[in-house]
Design goal:
- This protein has three helices and five strands.
- By secondary structure, the chain is an alpha+beta fold.
- Strands 1, 2, 3, 4 and 5 form a five-stranded antiparallel β-sheet that branches.
- Strand 3 and strand 4 form a beta hairpin.
- The termini are far apart.
Length: 116
């Protein structure tokens, strides 16, 4: 049993939070709309503990659950985006039951200043 959990952590799947973060951040960082709105350079990171404590911000907030409607396994992820003109939250969700060619159930950016 211990070996299963070690392998699960070392070999991420498309549903793993860090894998979802990597795919979503790649799309967000290339988006011209996001670049225009938040300015460059852009950076993305995990949970921000607030204040000015030093340390890594690589914990990706996520929730794993089973959708009651279709029974698919889902993973919701939230991370931070920071640019020259402001900050935002990025929200996305993946499902193990998506049609081929679709990466996300949704992927959205919410400005921290006004919620849009």
């Amino acid at each position: 049993t211990c070996g299963y959990f070690i392998l699960k952590e070392l070999i991420p799947t498309k549903m793993a939070p860090n894998s979802v973060f990597s795919r979503a951040s790649g799309i967000i960082l290339k988006s011209t709309q996001v670049q225009d709105r938040f300015g460059q350079p852009l950076k993305v990171y995990g949970r921000d503990h607030g204040g000015h404590r030093e340390g890594r911000r690589n914990f990706i907030e996520h929730t794993d659950y089973t959708d009651p409607e279709d029974g698919s396994k889902r993973c919701r992820v939230r991370f931070n985006l920071e640019g020259k003109f402001g900050n935002a939250f990025v929200f996305c969700e993946v499902s193990d039951n998506l049609p081929k060619g679709e990466d996300f159930v949704y992927l959205m950016v919410q400005d921290k200043r006004n919620g849009h």
